[in-house]
Amino acid sequence: MRLGVLTGGGDCPGLNAVIRAVVRKEIRDFGGTVFGFYNGWSGVVANEGEELDVLGLRGTLPRGGTVLGTSRDTPYRTEDGLELAKQTIKDRGIDALIVIGGEGTLSCANRIQEDGVVNVVGVPKTIDNDVGGTERTFGFDTAVAIATDAIDRLHTTAESHNRVMVVEVMGRNVGHIAVWAGMAGGATLTLIPEEPFDIKRVCEALSRRHNAGKFASIVVVAEGAQPLPGTMDIAEPTIDEFGHRRLGGIADAVAQEVERRTGFESRVTVLGHVQRGGTPTPFDRVLCTRFGVGAVEAAHERNFGTMVAMNNGMINTVPLAEATAELKTVHPQIWSAAKTFFA
Ligand code: F6P
Question: Whole-angstrom Cα distance, residue 197 to residue 226?
Answer without folding.
Answer: 6
